[in-house]
Design a protein that fits this description.
The protein is mostly helical. It has one domain. Helices cover 91% and strands 0% of the residues. The chain is rod-shaped, with a radius of gyration of 55 Å. The mean pLDDT is 90.
């Protein structure tokens, strides 16, 4: 009978140990399959299995904290990249607008230069015509003086 009690107790202890080891194995396999870092083992105790369970739970908490920090950093990085893209787009728009305004200014300057050239050409032409008029005026004045001298000489002869 003692053998039966010892055997039954041994089977009970083996069953309890096996049950705790199986729970630990199942949770570990589930975390491996699903990637769910929130899974925890509900095994308590101060024996080796309890220590392993607590170590596993602590490790999963650490992993979950690291993943959350990486996820948060990734979200912040996404926000920063989005803002940088917006700034880049605004910069491109500003550069395009500045290019357009520069082209308009350049076109206006070319028109002004052409207009100045035309004005210069007209001024040169006017100066040339004024010089010709002055030459003709000087020639007419010489003719008048010559005529006046001739008339004066005739008047002296007639007297």
């Amino acid at each position: 009978m003692l053998t039966l009690i010892v055997g039954g107790t041994a089977l009970l202890i083996i069953h309890l140990v096996t049950l705790r080891v199986t729970q630990l194995k199942d949770i570990m396999a589930d975390v491996e399959q699903s990637g769910d870092l929130s899974n925890r083992i509900n095994v308590s105790g101060k024996d080796e299995l309890g220590i392993m369970s607590n170590a596993f739970n602590s490790m999963m908490f650490s992993f979950q904290t690291i993943v959350n920090k990486v996820s948060s950093s990734s979200a912040q990085l996404d926000t920063i990249v989005e803002r940088a893209n917006q700034v880049g787009e605004k910069t491109v728009q500003g550069v395009l607008e500045q290019k357009k305004e520069t082209q308009q200014t350049s076109s206006a300057m070319l028109e002004m230069a052409a207009s100045s050239q035309q004005t210069n050409n007209l001024a040169n032409e006017t100066n040339l015509r004024a010089h010709e008029v002055q030459q003709q005026s000087n020639q007419g004045l010489k003719t008048i003086k010559k005529t006046n001298t001739s008339i004066h000489a005739l008047a002296q002869e007639c007297l």
